[in-house]
Amino acid sequence: MLTRKFLTLIALLFITVTAIAAPLPTYEITIKDGVFSPSSIEVPAKQRFKIIIKNIGSGPAEFENLSMRVEKVLAAGVSSFVVIHPLKPGSYHFIDEFHLDMAGFTINVK
């Protein structure tokens, strides 16, 4: 009986460690003078993920969604990342505040 409980505990510990060590799904985008490429991505609902942002433009860029409290300012030629918390299904729009006249970027959560 004690052996069965011990093996169950070891199995649960292994599952937990494996879940923690799993890498985040990662998406890469670029911003060039206010133009996002790709202009949208599709991600699964209720799952954390990482977005790597590269500013390949000639000036600064800002990856921003105020309602989600996500903001990343990048100088020209700089890369960085943001980790997005699990989202409900829907569309989440981001802008480059230095180029408000451009279309921006959308995360579509399914």
TrEMBL record:
Matching Pfam families: Cupredoxin_1
Stretch forming the signal peptide: 1-21
EfeO-type cupredoxin-like domain location: 6-105
Keywords (A to Z) from UniProt: Signal
InterPro entries in the cross-refs: Cupredoxin (IPR008972), EfeO_Cupredoxin (IPR028096)
Protein name: Cupredoxin domain-containing protein
Annotated organism of origin: Entomomonas asaccharolytica
